[in-house]
């Protein structure tokens, strides 16, 4: 495939609940099915030579959901990490997490730290999961850290350096499933010049082939970054 391959793809994995409800199943079933899509999509990215994939799993606004759904989601995240540890190591996936660590269950944040440490030398692809993440929250925390350090004349590099996403390059390609056309407070800073793709399918139906088609479309787009390209 001679497409231009994006270095960093971010995905808003949306539509699990509606996918399940349309099948007469519980929203939770949709979340379990959605989790199954993460591995094939990550491995497809790796095969295509994408260096970074970042997935939105739980937003700072998702606390507005019923407590039961929240609890099951956190349980699912932890179970998923335990279940996939072997495959993550086998495929040399470097796992990272962005988002607040002070409000999620301790057994989940412990598991996240464990996976980050365990996979820190893996260099196949960097898979970042956003949990209790909000773009506005990330920026606010970064600015407060700069204030605490007594920084003045703050530069863009300073801000980026204190974001949870400091280790990530800017996002080249943002995909959102389920046909919703909004960012929902994902990575505001890093999406400044991303190409956006909205897919009609719900996340549990999203396939590696859909991803490949979107990358083909991406490679046809003319990214000007504000300049005049002749
Ligand atoms: C995305 O699916 C997963 C999370 C936000 C946790 P949703 O749960 O938002 O599913 P819909 O959008 O209600 O169908
Ligand atoms: C965005 O989806 C967050 C995640 C995919 C984790 P939501 O379903 O929470 O977003 P809204 O409510 O449609 O904006
Ligand atoms: Mg949704």
Annotation keywords:
230 residues; alpha/beta; Undecaprenyl pyrophosphate synthetase; 6-stranded parallel sheet; 7 helices; binds 3-methylbut-3-enyl trihydrogen diphosphate; binds magnesium ion
Set out the fold topology.
Blueprint: E1 8-12, H1 16-21, H2 27-48, E2 52-59, H3 67-90, E3 93-98, H4 106-118, E4 125-133, H5 135-148, H6 156-162, E5 173-176, E6 195-198, H7 208-220
Helix pairs in contact: 2-3, 3-4, 5-6
The chain binds 3-methylbut-3-enyl trihydrogen diphosphate (2 copies) and magnesium ion.
The site of one 3-methylbut-3-enyl trihydrogen diphosphate (IPE) has 10 residues, from helix 1.
Short overview:
By secondary structure, the protein is an alpha/beta fold. It has helices at 16-21, 27-48, 67-90, 106-118, 135-148, 156-162, 208-220, and strands at 8-12, 52-59, 93-98, 125-133, 173-176, 195-198. Strand 3 (93-98), helix 4 (106-118) and strand 4 form a beta-alpha-beta unit.
Give structural notes.
- The chain is of the alpha/beta class and 230 residues long.
- It has one domain (11-220): Decaprenyl diphosphate synthase-like (Undecaprenyl pyrophosphate synthetase, 3-Layer(aba) Sandwich), CATH 3.40.1180.10.
- Helix content is 43%, strand content 16%.
- It has seven helices and six strands; from the N terminus they run βααβαβαβααββα.
- The chain has helices spanning 16-21, 27-48, 67-90, 106-118, 135-148, 156-162, 208-220, and strands at residues 8-12, 52-59, 93-98, 125-133, 173-176, 195-198.
- Strands 3-4-2-1-5-6 form a six-stranded parallel β-sheet, with helices on both faces.
- Strand 3 (93-98), helix 4 and strand 4 (125-133) form a beta-alpha-beta unit.
- Helix 2 (27-48) packs parallel to helix 3 (67-90) and helix 3 (67-90) packs parallel to helix 4.
- The longest helix has 24 residues, at 67-90.
- The chain is globular, with a radius of gyration of 18 Å.
- It starts with 7 loop residues before the first strand and ends in a 10-residue tail after the last helix.
- The mean pLDDT is 97.
């Amino acid at each position: 495939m001679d497409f231009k391959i994006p270095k960093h793809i971010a995905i808003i994995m949306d539509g699990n609940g509606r996918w399940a409800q349309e099948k007469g199943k519980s929203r939770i079933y949709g979340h379990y099915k959605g989790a199954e899509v993460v591995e094939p999509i990550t491995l497809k990215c790796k095969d295509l030579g994408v260096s970074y994939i970042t997935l939105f799993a739980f937003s700072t606004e998702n606390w507005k959901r019923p407590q039961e759904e929240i609890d099951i989601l956190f349980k699912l995240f932890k179970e998923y990490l335990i279940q996939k540890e072997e495959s993550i190591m086998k495929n040399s996936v470097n796992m990272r997490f962005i988002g607040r660590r002070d409000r999620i269950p301790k057994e989940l944040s412990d598991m996240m730290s464990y996976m980050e440490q365990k996979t820190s030398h893996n260099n196949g692809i960097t898979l970042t999961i956003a949990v209790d993440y909000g773009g506005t929250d990330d920026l606010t925390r970064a600015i407060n850290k700069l204030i605490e350090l007594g920084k003045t004349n703050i530069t863009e590099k300073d801000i980026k350096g204190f974001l949870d996403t400091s280790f990530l390059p800017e996002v080249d390609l943002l995909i959102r499933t389920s046909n919703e056309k909004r960012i929902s407070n994902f990575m505001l800073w890093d999406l400044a010049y991303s190409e956006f793709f909205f897919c009609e399918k719900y996340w549990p139906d999203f396939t590696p082939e859909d991803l490949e088609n979107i990358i083909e479309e991406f490679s046809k787009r003319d990214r000007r970054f504000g300049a005049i390209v002749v």
